[in-house]
Amino acid sequence: MKLSKGAAITLLIAGLLVIDQIIKVAVKLNMAIGDSIFVFGQEWFQICFTENSGFAFGMQFGGDIGKIILTLFRLVLIGLIIYFIKKRLLRDREVSTGVLVGVSLVLVGAIGNVIDCLFYGRLFSESTWFDVATFLPEDGGYAPLLMGKVVDMFYFPIIDTTLPEWVPFKGGERFIFFRAIFNFADACISVGAVYLLLFQRRNLFKYFEHR
């Protein structure tokens, strides 16, 4: 039985969201903040647990009020992307599968991180440098709705060295590339956006030009 394009995209989105949440919950329930695991014994690929209250890759945005505004903005954006996929992309036979997949990846990333913000504060106890979180704690979660923290874990310090003394201003200091710690949802957003810009730009622009 052949799946329709809409069913296939729905399964793709649902499957990636499940992967994102499985990874986050596994990290949340088994690691304390700052814990690191060397994947395949390699220092350049680590599972390093941290949480952030802001945007992707640990950036911050205006404290608690900024977080609420950001979460609400994400919800609006998610609604617009769902509308765009359902009412436009899936109904247009000329739209390329690549555009549809790229936009869907961005949607997965947005939904994945919003789930953390909306529900994790109610579902889990607080993760600390010394304590691993528990699920559905008796005394309630660590934060109200909309105020949960986003779980991050992927860390790729591909270069970790000390700069030579002759380097201006930074000589002798530690240099790490790539410092960002991110999650599967962040990766979906990045991959989807880069894929659209590099490989589907013409198809995407053609679609808007004809509207």
Map the helices and strands.
Elements: H1 5-30, E1 36-38, E2 46-52, H2 63-89, H3 97-123, E3 150-155, E4 159-162, E5 174-177, E6 181-182, H4 184-199, H5 201-209
Antiparallel strand pairs: 1-2, 2-3, 3-6, 4-5
Helix pairs in contact: 1-3, 2-3, 3-4
How is this structure best described in words?
The protein has a four-stranded antiparallel β-sheet. A two-stranded antiparallel sheet has the order 4-5. The chain is globular, with a radius of gyration of 20 Å. The mean pLDDT is 87. It has helices at 5-30, 63-89, 97-123, 184-199, 201-209, and strands at 36-38, 46-52, 150-155, 159-162, 174-177, 181-182. It is of the alpha+beta class. A hairpin with a 7-residue loop joins strand 1 and strand 2 (46-52). It contains five helices and six strands. 50% of the residues lie in helices and 12% in strands.
- The total number of structural domains is 1
Strands in their spatial order, largest beta sheet = 1-2-3-6
Portion of residues within helices: 40-55%
Low-confidence region ranges: none
Number of helices, counting only DSSP H or I runs of 4 residues or more: 5
Average pLDDT: 87
Task: Summarize this structure briefly.
The chain has helices at residues 5-30, 63-89, 97-123, 184-199, 201-209, and strands spanning 36-38, 46-52, 150-155, 159-162, 174-177, 181-182.
